Amino acid sequence: MKKFSEERIVFVVIIFIASILRLWNYWNWSFTHDELGAFLRLNYSSFSELIVQGVRDRDTHPAFAQVFIWGWTKLFGLSEAAIRLPFVIAGIGSVVLLYFVAKKWFGFATACFSSLSLAILNFPILYSQLARPYSFGLFFSLLSVWFWTNLLFGSGRRIYLKSILYGIATALCMYTHYFSFFFVMIVAVTGFLFLKKETWKPYLLSGGIAIFLFLPHFFVSVHQFSMGGVGEWLAKPEKEYLWKYILYGLNDSSLVVITVATLFLLSMLVYHPDISFSKFQFICVAWFFLPFVAGYYYSVNANAVLQYSTLLFSFPFLLLFLFSFFKERHKKLNNILFVSWGIILLFSTIVEEKFYKRECFGVFKEINQSVINLQNKYGKENVATVLNSSGKDIMDFYFKRWNVNVPFNFFSGDDSLFVSDMMKKVDSCKTSYFIYGWSNFRSPYEIPELIKRKYPCILYDEKHFNSQITMFGKINSCKRDTIFYSHVGFDRSSSLGAGKGLSWDSAKADTSYSHSGKYALNIEPKDEFCITLKTTVKKLFRDNSGCVNINAWIYSKEEIYAQLVMEVGDPNGKREWQGKPLQQFVKHPSPVGEGHGVRWQEVFATFELPSSAYPDDEVRIYLWNQNKNSFYLDDFTVSSFADSKYDYYAPSFRK
């Protein structure tokens, strides 16, 4: 009875810690981009519309999370506290299930260490607080493993009930996330290695139940896979991806990694007389690695799908393996190590990693609130506002929720015309102030540089992780600190002294067309490299960081495919190459009449200095006429400024 009470107390403490860490402030930070994307797919008049239009045609996940959110929000609304709560509870339930699975497989000591780790590490806490499929996917995966264990390794009592429950849990995984689907398929195949005469029929029955329950979703899944999914924007994994993922799962903390390694080695040394590599340890290794191997291979050779979040469902089995060598002997030592491990994890998550202050995703609530405050302070009529994300409805979510009328222009960062459209917007703007806000989407460095040409003074700047809101002004006393400036207009009277560091063929300048002055550079098909700047990193950049701008004016009677290019590195060795195509700026003229619709058009590009550059490395900036087009070039300018530094992914903390 005493032993049972002690174990129960430890279990309650672990679950209490898991609950506090997941419930703490879970409602008080902005919905993420993916959460908002799911919420925008809720306004359908019927369940069938939700499945067809909201899941099949617009999602890359199975239907469970979307259907659950659809029903839940009808009952409890769309507040952060209400909608995230079930996912938080599922995260707590996952800790409970891991404890029982670990205890069944390896004993009480392993259950304590592994479940405590799942309770406190950043990775599982974060994905327990998101209204996305991950928390339920983890819960259902561990639930499936629990019923799988009881079916194959439990007593023979109620074996068909266990079979039915295992089949239902497996089907729930299949409905929740395709990586949890794949994980439980690995679990199911593993089970065939341990079947006995009395478990064959119940096991096949459970598989039949899972397949039968998933049949209504089959054609939805087929359609989703045909759409391509996240591979259209997600980068392929690097060779060291697995190691980076393990570090991420261990808080990216040297303290945690060293402590885990020490505990692992210590358990093997202390309990080495009892050590034998059991079937469950083989299973832990296989179940952790196989989803990664499959995801990595598919991502590299087909469609990139591998993300840290998709490996959450197999992550507990890494923890199980690492602590699987602890035994029930040396109880005092186990208690000391267990308490010490808990203190280290709490310190790492709360203090070292600042989990409850750190922003992990681009924010929207804060961006929207700042826009409202700035427009109210400076007057809506005096402020031009441009916001950028994947969709206007996502950027509009909090405005509508607060029932506030906020005038703004929306441009999507992945639009090929984004930079050129922003250039036109800024050039035509007559207000005294300009607000630019963006979140969780592509925001080219050209955008703030274009705005600063007309609004050089930054009056307000609120930076978040992968998001930002800035108010620019055009106060006369505000000037940018120029590091480098070189301009050439190709007029023969000034060509010898103009264009610091620039070289071009002066014989190509003629008076047929010009943007300013009398001369422009006549580029012919044979002129592949039209104009070049040669300098060094230390002359172009300050503190070995920042950006450089290149802008010019082009007159063309044909569609051109030129690029502005920057190369940085050893003149005779390895060089970093960046190119920006100009099609987004130079529009093809109308074919009605020779020269009809032809006009001078400005091109603009911003290049970031590569992190690998050295101060004495050579920098080459040039216009590359790769398709051998004919056009005129004028007013070519290269410039860099002290405030041209942008780090969108720097650690950011909640205000």
Question: Which short descriptors sum up this protein?
Answer:
655 residues, alpha+beta, 3 domains, 5-stranded mixed sheet, 22 helices, elongated
Q: Can you give a write-up of this model?
A:
The chain is α+β, with helices and mostly antiparallel strands and 655 residues long. It folds into 3 domains: 2-352, no CATH class; 365-473; 482-641, Galactose-binding domain-like (Jelly Rolls). The protein has 22 helices and 16 strands. It has helices at 2-23, 33-39, 47-56, 64-76, 80-105, 108-120, 122-128, 133-153, 159-176, 178-191, 200-214, 218-226, 241-249, 254-270, 279-301, 315-322, 331-352, 365-378, 392-401, 418-428, 446-454, 537-540; strands spanning 383-388, 409-410, 433-439, 457-464, 467-473, 482-488, 502-504, 509-510, 520-523, 529-536, 547-555, 563-569, 575-581, 601-608, 618-624, 631-641. The strands form 3 sheets. Strands 6, 8, 9, 11, 14 and 16 form a 6-stranded antiparallel β-sheet that branches. A 5-stranded mixed β-sheet has the order 2-1-3-5-4, with helices on both faces. It has a 5-stranded antiparallel β-sheet with strand order 7-10-15-12-13.
